[in-house]
Specification:
The complex is a heterodimer.
Chain A: H1 8-16, H2 19-26, H3 28-40, H4 45-61, H5 63-76, E1 80-84, H6 87-100, E2 105-108, H7 112-116, H8 119-125, E3 129-132, H9 135-142, H10 159-170, H11 178-195, E4 198-201, E5 205-207, E6 213-217, H12 221-227, E7 231-237, E8 241-242, H13 248-259, E9 267-271, E10 285-291, H14 295-300, H15 315-319, H16 323-326, H17 337-348, H18 365-369, H19 376-389, H20 400-413, H21 416-429, E11 434-435, E12 438-439, E13 455-456, H22 463-472
Parallel strand pairs in A: 1-10, 2-3, 2-4, 4-7, 5-8, 7-10
Antiparallel strand pairs in A: 5-6, 6-9, 11-12, 12-13
Helix pairs in contact in A: 3-13, 4-13, 17-19
Chain B: H1 4-18, H2 35-59, E1 63-67, H3 70-83, E2 88-91, H4 102-108, E3 112-114, H5 122-128, E4 131-135, E5 138-140, E6 145-149, E7 164-169, E8 174-175, H6 178-188, E9 198-202, E10 207-208, E11 216-217, E12 224-230
Parallel strand pairs in B: 1-12, 2-3, 2-4, 4-7, 5-8, 7-12
Antiparallel strand pairs in B: 5-6, 6-9, 10-11
Classes of the chains: A alpha/beta, B alpha/beta.
Chain lengths: ~475, ~230
């Protein structure tokens, strides 16, 4: 997976200073408010979250068996299953399908995993037109940008930006309101739907028992992508499989509520194979591409494994104080926000995205919001520790001096007398560095700690000393 | 090019990661009730369920009409068609209204009623039609959701391509919610055909909030959703 997360420190600082972006991001709170209402109206909401987590845990624990069962179910329906070790395999499979079927135009519905493997670029490179049909994705594609939010890909753009974009790229001028822009997009895209030979979608869930692919949406573009083109290709990560059809009742109750605060999204489609004899519409050919692309590495790490339970609902983004300030682009990856800070290092390598696990206050809002209760803060801490310990893959780790100092600190903490005398001297020694009761710049290898914030000064009197005085008074 | 190698390698990686081949133990956390039990329950609660369905669908922008008779339902359809100046209506092949030949009646109003069995190029016609009229398989009261199962005579395009979708609902189709539906659907479908090639859940008209999170109704799917509750 290609990422630009190396420049996170710089890009996030720029984002914080971007007032237009700040205004766009402020509306995110609406999602969270609606989510809270939708969950409070649900009876047994908390129990449903536990059940959903248990199903995901079951699916992941027996992943090889469920994937084989899924394969068998799809084949039984006359569909074809393709396995892809990495993005290159998946792109080759889909390009090959397109070429063999003389496909000139592909309609795509929003799918994180197709972004992950940069499928559009590969299709375009092969001379095949690939059109994003979700309104937000369409806008982002016209602008040659990347989505900045799982659910609202164009949240970083204002109405004015989009109006200018439509004037330039679609020759539709003078559009002021969101309604007018939507009408233009509908017309332009409807033409594409009616003429595309292939529809490519992701999958919210894939049911091992029946081979059913579940797609959740509001606009209807996914329904069109699966109904009109002759060929339907589904690209899914290995973690999307769930055991049984009836499990869907649980996921459908929590997914839309977590994502947008809706009780049900406008449309949910269960697609089970291609159209059957006598049916007038629906794809005639059905292909399922099952992609690993680094997910089996996450699976192998028991501390990371639960991140594969993610439903990609976006709730953790909406509640994250860091995401709320910097938006999705600064993360430099298709997967942004708290869950992105886990998935990106896991898929692209920690050396390329070392700052992401640190881009969190560990406040726990993401864990609270996650419908399947992924312990995101715990995994972020684990990744921080991995980085600081400097495994064989990333020798750098923390500066030696910093690591030595932390070891010394740990040594001192276990010895109260030593600890007290060190801090008494520190309270004295810090004076040249202090201004307004804060440490503005730490010396040597500790400079990073104070580059973007002040460090609290060591108090003149320790809490224990104050406590003793209080007791003897 | 990926091939059987990719399959074996991916499975091997997963097994290595899990540290073993797994042996599946059948489990399901979902609790399904018998369809007889569900039907009896819903029967008892039906007036309340219908009221709830109406209120939930209205909240998400659907319009609910109550038709005491098939004739009244026909009049609703004609009313909507004349307000939208629709000249072509597409629909399911099933007889949607008891004792009423929709095609003949609409023809009198100058409206062509087309189904997949009357038109070779049905999808092209559907794409140009102003209104689609379908039945439903279930109506879920607690979310205001219509559930449509695809099969011959019930093209998916009917509820998707025109900008107005009219759904005709029989009282016995209104059930409490998803749990009921999952219980009923399995029992009412032939085992080798379960589930249908497409199960479509429709909750209100098509919508987006992709521009500044402003709600806009009517993107790729219908802009208007009318549910006619038959008496």
């Amino acid at each position: 997976m290609n990422v630009q997360s190396q420049t996170f420190i710089h890009d996030s600082a720029v984002a914080v200073g971007n007032e237009k972006l700040q205004a766009r991001l402020r509306v995110l709170v609406n999602y969270t408010l609606k989510r809270n209402v939708a969950f409070s109206e649900l009876k047994d909401g908390e129990a449903l979250r536990d059940q959903a987590r248990a199903i995901k845990a079951q699916a992941i624990h027996y992943l090889d068996s469920y994937l084989l069962q899924l394969e068998e179910s799809v084949v039984r329906l006359g569909g074809k299953v393709h396995w892809a070790r990495h993005g290159e395999d998946a792109r080759a499979i889909i390009l090959d399908l397109a070429r063999k079927n003389n496909v000139k135009r592909v309609v795509k519905s929003k799918s994180m995993v197709t972004e992950e493997i940069e499928l559009n670029e590969a299709l375009e490179h092969a001379g095949i037109e690939a059109i994003e049909t979700d309104l937000g994705e369409y806008i982002v594609q016209l602008a040659h940008e990347k989505p900045s939010h799982i659910l609202a890909p164009a949240i970083h753009k204002s109405k004015g930006d989009i109006s200018e974009l439509f004037a330039e790229k679609l020759d539709a001028r003078g559009l002021k309101e969101a309604e007018e822009m939507t009408v233009v997009a509908r017309q332009r895209l409807r033409e594409k739907f009616c003429t595309a030979e292939m529809g490519i979608t992701g999958a919210n869930f894939a049911v091992a028992e029946t081979g059913t692919i579940v797609l959740v949406e509001n606009e209807g573009n996914i329904r069109l992508s699966t109904t009109l083109p002759r060929i339907h290709v589904v690209l899914m990560g290995i973690e999307k499989v769930i055991p049984s059809f009836d499990d869907l009742a649980i996921f459908l109750k929590i997914l839309a509520r977590s994502a947008t605060g809706q009780k049900m999204s406008s449309y949910v489609s269960f697609i089970t194979g291609s159209r059957r004899a006598g049916e007038a519409d629906g794809a005639e050919e059905f292909h399922l591409v099952i992609l690993d692309n680094g997910r089996s590495r996450i699976l192998a790490d028991e501390e990371m494994r639960e991140s594969l339970y993610c439903l990609r609902c976006g709730a953790c983004l909406n509640v994250c104080p860091v995401y709320q300030k910097i938006g999705g682009h600064a993360y430099g990856s298709v997967y942004s926000g708290p869950i992105g800070s886990i998935v990106t290092p896991a898929l692209a390598g920690l050396e390329k995205s070392k700052d992401l696990p640190f881009a969190s206050t560990l406040c726990g809002a993401c864990r609270e919001a996650c419908p399947v209760r992924i312990d995101i803060p715990r995994i972020l801490l684990k990744l921080r520790s991995d980085w600081s310990e400097g495994g064989e893959n990333h020798k750098a780790g923390s500066p030696l001096l910093e690591r030595a100092a932390i070891r010394l600190w740990a040594f001192a903490m276990k010895r109260p007398f030593l600890y007290n005398s060190v801090f008494r001297s520190a309270a004295f020694l810090q004076r040249p560095l202090m201004r307004d009761g804060k440490l503005r710049r730490l010396p040597f290898a500790f400079g990073g700690w104070t580059r973007n914030r002040d460090f609290p000064a060591v108090a003149r009197k320790s809490f224990r000393a104050m406590w003793r005085e209080e007791q003897t008074r | 090019m990926a091939g059987s190698n990719a399959r074996e390698e991916t499975l091997a990686r997963i097994r290595r990661a899990l540290k073993s081949d797994t042996k599946l133990e059948a489990t399901s956390v979902a609790n399904r009730r018998s369809s007889t039990e569900v039907k009896r329950d819903c029967e008892q609660k039906r007036p309340a369920l219908i009221a709830q369905f109406e209120s939930e669908l209205t909240k998400v922008g659907g319009r609910v009409h109550k038709a005491a008779s098939a004739q009244a339902a026909l009049e609703y359809i004609e009313e909507i068609a004349s307000a939208r100046r629709a000249t072509t209506i597409i629909g399911w092949t099933d007889r949607l209204l008891d004792g009423i030949d929709l095609q003949a009646h609409l023809k009198e109003e100058g409206i062509e009623f087309i189904t997949e069995s009357t038109d070779e190029a049905f999808i092209q016609t559907a794409a140009a039609a102003g209104i689609g009229v379908s039945g439903v398989d279930y109506a879920l009261a607690d979310t205001g959701t219509l559930v449509l199962l695809s099969r011959e005579g019930r093209a998916r395009s009917v509820s998707l391509l025109p900008s107005v979708h009219i759904a005709l609902i029989r009282p016995e189709q209104v059930i409490e919610g998803l749990d009921d539906m999952f219980s009923l659907m399995r029992d009412s479908t032939d085992r080798d055909k379960f589930p249908s090639s497409a199960v479509t859940f429709i909750t209100g008209p098509s919508r987006t909030a992709d521009i500044e999170l402003t709600l806009v109704v009517g993107v790729h799917g219908p802009q208007e959703l009318h549910a006619i509750l038959l008496g």
